[in-house]
Amino acid sequence: MLTASRLVLARKRRRMTLSGLAKESGISVRSLTAFENGHKVPAPETIEALSLALELPVDFLTAPDVDEISTDSVSFRALSKMSALDRDAARGAGRIVVEINDWIEDRFGLPEPNVPTLPHLSPEEAAERLRALWGLGEGPIPNMVHLLESHGVRVFSLASDCSSVDAFSFRWKRTRPFVVLNLEKSGERGRFDAAHELGHLVMHSEHRIPHGVDAEQEAQQFASAFLMPKSGLLAQQLFGADARRILSAKLKWQVAAVALAYRLRDLDLLTDWNYRTAVKLLSQMGYRSGEPGGITRESSQLLGKVFSALRSEGIPASVMAKDINLTLDELNLHVFGLVPTVFEGGYRSSAPARPNLRVVGE
């Protein structure tokens, strides 16, 4: 029997209007509306047609009810400029990663959330306090994704068909923190996005709606201060740094060159004239639109360990996909493309022991 909430989720995940789904499935808008409202029960062959149109298994559409992630709990950037289709597709992707995480948590011991809320502090103060609480000192952060995972944040990749969204975060049921990252950005941009979403989790998610101009500006300031702490930059003696020194320093902090120049000006280590001169030269060298010779994009250590543990137990990723009622391709979109593409041998039908996965802290 069709589950109305799952039909809504699947349609939104696929960026479809009712008219679009009607065209793809051959089912009238009137019938689709009745299905989504729970006023009409479709025949099995109609559910099959919906499954084909939505490229999701029939089992996804007939599984138990799901709650949507509310728009006000998600840290969307430039929400007013985002189309409803883009917004809902991203929320649908977020709901699916919650399902994936539930499956993993049922089988593995994962780090418990350790993300304080510091709504009363300025972004600079919040970044400093969090670095102190997490024992990070004043140096560069080797890997932002691993750091988040080691403190209980569940990090997933944003499906490529939602590429218009930079990244977003939310606390599911006001407890479990999630960060979803766009993989089409540079490695440096990806680290900044992860720190930006951490800022929303720390400063906004439990106390304010985590979007809007002010919230976005605060998250940007938090990310800048968290990745490039004032004390660390002062120790590096970057006062008056030119483009050459900025390019050298960015290798240490693993940030975009222009982001580092902006941070130096923000700390009064560059005058406005120094800043404009450096950014003009960096732009001519291609650092405004990209990051030539940039770092490798960060990936999930935790999900890598999950798939490795499953493989060692003889459990193919297809079993995980089937349990969550997803196709293997859909699953792979949300897990940094870490689903093994080749698996040798059968799988064990009995449940494996529940191993504890530890993420190496940074």
Automatic annotation (TrEMBL):
Task: Supply the Gene3D superfamilies for this chain.
Answer: 1.10.10.2910, lambda repressor-like DNA-binding domains
Per the UniProt entry, the signal peptide is none
Q: Which InterPro entries match?
A: Cro/C1-type_HTH (IPR001387), IrrE_HExxH (IPR010359), Lambda_DNA-bd_dom_sf (IPR010982), Rad_response_metalloprotease (IPR052345)
CDD domains documented for this protein: HTH_XRE
- Residue intervals of the HTH cro/C1-type domain: 7-61
Q: Which GO terms describe its molecular function?
A: DNA binding
| Source species, domain of life | Bacteria
Family, according to the entry, reads as follows:
Belongs to the short-chain fatty acyl-CoA assimilation regulator (ScfR) family.
Name this polypeptide is given: HTH cro/C1-type domain-containing protein
